[in-house]
Each structure stands twice: as C-alpha cells, then as structure tokens.
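Hey Z.,

So I finally got round to the 2-acetamido-2-deoxy-beta-D-glucopyranose thing we talked about over coffee. Here's the setup:
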Amino acid sequence: MHYAQLTGSFFLLPCILTASACVTPNPTPAAFTDFNDNIFFFPAANAVQWKTLYARSLQLADESLLMTWENYPAEPPLVSHPIYRSVDGGATYSNFSSIKDQVNGWGMRFQPFLYTLPQAFGGYPVGTLLAAGVSAPESLVGGVYIDLYVSKDSAKTWSFVSHIAYGAGPETITSGNAALWEPFLMMYDGLLVCYFSDQRDPAHSQKLSHVTTNNLLTWSAPVNDVAYSAYNDRPGMTTVAYIASTGEYIMTYEYCGSANCAVHYKTASNPLNFNAATGIALVGNDTAHTVPYGSPYVIWTPNPASASGSGVIIVSSGSLEPVLINGDSANPSGWEVLDVGQWSAYSRSLRIITTPAVKH
Ligand SMILES: *[C@@H]1O[C@H](CO)[C@@H](O)[C@H](O)[C@H]1NC(C)=O
Ligand SMILES: *[C@@H]1O[C@H](CO)[C@@H](O)[C@H](O)[C@H]1NC(C)=O
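And the result:
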C-alpha cells in the first residue's frame, strides 16, 4: 500500500518577531501514520529571511525519507541545501547531511531537487541518489549554475558531478537577467532530463527548457518546453509525471504574465517534445470552477485496487489548500477539487511513499 505525502515549505511573514506565539501547536504524530501540518524545521533566529521554500522529498529503499529545501541563513558559512532524514514515516526528522557547493565558491542557494536513479547510469548503480540545485553568489551577481551532485552512501555524503546549465546572471527575476531556476530531474529513454526555468533567451522574459545527458557529465543544448510569443509571459516551475497506464507524460507549470500564474498543463507521449503540445488551463470541475495559481507540482500514482492499472493524477498549487485530481486521460473537465487538510504553501511537493505499517 501507498499513501501520498504532501510537503510544503512555510512562510509566516506576520510572525517574524514572535514566531513561537504565532505557530499552531505542532501535532506529534505517531510513527507511520497519516498527519498534516507537521513542522520539523524553523530557520535560525538570525536568518536573512525567516522562511523556507521549495521543500522536496525522497524515499530510499530502506523506507527512510529525506527532505531538502531552500533556506536563507546568515552567511558565512555559504548557504547549502540541508538534508534532513526521517526513519518513522515523517513523524520526526533530524539533520542528516548537507549538499555544499564544492566548485563555485557561491553556495547551494536555490531550489534543490532529489532523485533516485531508476537504472544503472553514468557509471553509477541503480538506486544512486542525485541532487540538482541552483548555485549562485550571495550578491546574485556574477553567474549561476544548475549543478548536479551524487551520493553513493544513501545521502551521507555528496560529490559534485557536473554543471547542468550556466547563466551569466544576475540571478533575479528581472527580465533580461540571464537567470536559471527550479531544476526537475527525470530519466527518459536512456537519458537523464533536467527541466528548468530559463531567462537566458533574449526573446522571452522567461521560458521553460530542458537539457539531457547520456553520461551525467556532458549536457545537451537547451530545448524549449514552453515559450510564449509575448515577451513578458513567464511560464515557470516545470514538474513532470509519467502516466504508466497510458504511456503519456504530463507537465504542469505556472503561466505568469498574461495568465496571472494560473496553473497550466501539457500532455505528450514524448516528454522531450512538450513544446509541440498545447498548454491547457487547469480548472477545477466544481461549481466555483476553482483555479489554482502558482507553483504547481504533479505526480501520478496507480490505484492499487484497479485491475487495469489505472490511477490518479494529483496536482498541488501554491494558492490552494486542496489538491486537484484527475483520471489518467487528464480530461480538462475532470479536475476534481479534493481537500486534504494541509496548509497551502509556495511550491508544495507531492510524493507517494510506502510504510512498513501498511505493507503486505
Ligand atoms: C546538519 O549537518 C550537516 C552535516 O553534518 C552540517 O554541515 C550542518 O551544519 C547541520 N545543520 C544544522 C542546521 O545543524
Ligand atoms: C469531476 O471530475 C471527476 C473525475 O476526475 C468526476 O468523477 C466528477 O464527476 C466530475 N464532477 C463534475 C461536477 O463534473
């Protein structure tokens, strides 16, 4: 059996001065149970910004869970991407390791992403852990890399592998700045793909691109996934899921600019050719026609009770507490709004996890 775990970073701006007084009493879930809103990390009191963003998870073969996120400690030392680990199904976490910049002297600053190699690849065995993240100077001026790190010891230690992409910066959202954001890794057809948000093309304030590698060391030229003709349109934040029952892929993104960051999606049989697919606005099929805005995340999971192998597409957004779910065809009128009782947050992530308590 599986259950879905939804992890959100939190952002409690009104609570900066009196944080402890503002936070809802934390639940203390039992190991391997279902729960919501379980806080396990607060920034240090002297953090430059008292928040975290882009929480991302991974489950290892031993069923432990890893979490990482973007944070803003006072520097030095240079910012790194934390790795916290849970061995009780996410009820409690403790600090485990950290992905530190080993090559740029800038720190691992933004948008970490964790991935497990589903096959032997690039000289590493199946099950090897990969981490992508954005490395940029604290000043945000002087360049930006999306970098790839690997762990051969279940996240205890990390080593630099390659630069996935480079931009000249500055690393800000100002149009014309050659910035890079939000890597998302996925294997397809013997290639590792890295999707990301790309401000380097002078024809677009921002577009969505991907690059591929067949050896983890050298990466292809960028290929468009979403690029709108209006310069100020800013599609952002690619995530992709494989729908095993249909063999199709779905990507979600926010369509900022003329669509006010409304969540959109594309489907394609070839996830290297999303550019040829038409983006569809994702709208709930409730009577209110609920529209999710900003920072979407998509997964697909098979339904263990389905003999045909069909399942469910699950989409989270930044603006809603509920998630939106759909059948495997991603029918535009099939997006059901489903309350899951979890706070909304900027760039929540989703993962199906297994637990010993419910395994057969
Ligand atoms: C967590 O552990 C790592 C590795 O031991 C260390 O570098 C880092 O400073 C620790 N983080 C915190 C918040 O204690
Ligand atoms: C919404 O879509 C779901 C399928 O995901 C379907 O079961 C449900 O009937 C739809 N609701 C409405 C009001 O159309």
